[in-house]
Amino acid sequence: MQVISSRTFRDSQKKYLDLATQERVIIKRNNVYLELVPRGNTIPENPSPSLDPWFDNPNNIELLNQSVEQAENGQTISLSKEMQQKLLGI
Q1: What is the edge-to-edge ordering of all strands in the sheet holding 32-36?
Q2: What is the dihedral of CA 7, 9, 14, 16, to 10 degrees?
Q3: Is the Cα torsion angle 69, 73, 79, 80 positive or negative in sign?
């Protein structure tokens, strides 16, 4: 794994773009880390960086979008540790 500054990347882009096909390349820019992720010859629609197949199912994406909407509308509750244990039977 290589961690480089944005200046180093800018000065040697080809080198680090080529290297990213063989190992992880992470660019540090203003205390934020950006990772170069090779995707092959196509850009997948799957938003998961690991290409988790769960995100390929449209039903899962719909459920996720509904859950986000519920959270944004305040339609969620926080479970205490005791409530979690009771619901999970532990």
Answers
A1: 2-5, 25-29, 32-36
A2: 160
A3: positive
Q: Which fold has domain 1-38+45-50?
A: YefM-like fold (3.40.1620)
Q: Domain segments of the chain: what residues?
A: 1-38+45-50
What single DSSP character describes residue 4?
Answer: E
Q: How many residues can be counted in the chain?
A: 90
Q: What is the pTM of this model?
A: 0.50
User: According to DSSP H, which parts of 1-90 are helical?
Assistant: 6-11, 13-19, 58-72, 81-88
Q: pLDDT of 28-82, one tens digit each?
A: 999 999 999 887 787 767 778 777 888 888 899 899 999 999 999 999 989 999 9
SS3 62: helix
